[in-house]
Design a protein that fits this description.
Elements: H1 8-12, H2 23-45, H3 49-54, H4 56-81, H5 87-107, H6 112-117, H7 119-138, H8 140-145, H9 155-190
Helix pairs in contact: 2-4, 4-5, 4-9, 5-7
Length: 191
C-alpha cells in the first residue's frame, strides 16, 4: 500500500512545486549578491577619513549606501530562493537602483568632459540594465518559475525601495548643503 504524505499547504493548493531556477537566474542572483558585497567592500576600502572630517554627511553617504545595497541584494536573493510572488518586481527595482547608482556619480555635478569620458561606463551600465530587465520580463524560464499571473508587489517592497533611494539622497543632500554653508561661512569670515 502506497502512502501519500502531503503537507497541509500542498493539500490546500497554496503551495505548488515550481521548476528549479534556470542557470541564467542563478547567474543573475550570483551577480546580485556579488554586487552587494563588492559595493560594501569598496565603500569601506575607499572610505576617506578626510571627507568625514570635513563633512560627516558626505563622509558616511557611501558607507551607508554600501550597507543598504548589501541588505537589498540579500533581500532580493532571499525572495527569489523562496519563490515569493514579489521576486520579479524586487529584481527589476534592484536593477533600476544599480543603473541609477552607477550613473548618478558621473552625471551629477560633473563637467561635460567628465560625463563624456565616462560614457562607456554609463553605456555598459545601461546595457546591463536592459539585458537583465528584458530577460526578467520576457523569459519563458522566468515565467515558469514565477508565472506572470501570480506576480505582485507588497507595501513592504515600496517601503524598502523608499529607504534604498531616500536615505542616501538625504545624506548626500545634507552633506552638500552643510558643505556649502561651511564654505560660505569661511568666505564671509575672510571679508
Amino acid at each position: 500500500m502506497e502512502t501519500n504524505s502531503f503537507s497541509n499547504e500542498e493539500l490546500s493548493g497554496t503551495h505548488r512545486q515550481r521548476p528549479r531556477l534556470s542557470n541564467w537566474l542563478v547567474f543573475f542572483l550570483f551577480t546580485v549578491g556579488l554586487y552587494g558585497l563588492i559595493t560594501l567592500i569598496l565603500s569601506i576600502v575607499l572610505f576617506d577619513k578626510n571627507i568625514l572630517a570635513i563633512n560627516v554627511f558626505l563622509g558616511i553617504t557611501e558607507l551607508v549606501f554600501g550597507f543598504i545595497m548589501l541588505l537589498f541584494s540579500a533581500y532580493t536573493i532571499f525572495i527569489f530562493i523562496n519563490r515569493q510572488f514579489n521576486a520579479i518586481f524586487v529584481a527589476k527595482a534592484w536593477l533600476a537602483i544599480l543603473f541609477l547608482s552607477n550613473c548618478v556619480p558621473y552625471i551629477v555635478g560633473s563637467s561635460e568632459e567628465t560625463v563624456l569620458s565616462n560614457y562607456g561606463r554609463i553605456f555598459f551600465s545601461f546595457t546591463w540594465f536592459i539585458v537583465w530587465f528584458v530577460y526578467l520580463t520576457l523569459s519563458s524560464q522566468v515565467n515558469r518559475a514565477f508565472p506572470k499571473e501570480e506576480r505582485r508587489f507588497y507595501k513592504m517592497d515600496i517601503v524598502i525601495l523608499i529607504i534604498v533611494i531616500v536615505v542616501p539622497v538625504v545624506l548626500c543632500t545634507a552633506g552638500v548643503v552643510t558643505f556649502k554653508r561651511d564654505i560660505l561661512e569661511i568666505y564671509n569670515g575672510m571679508r
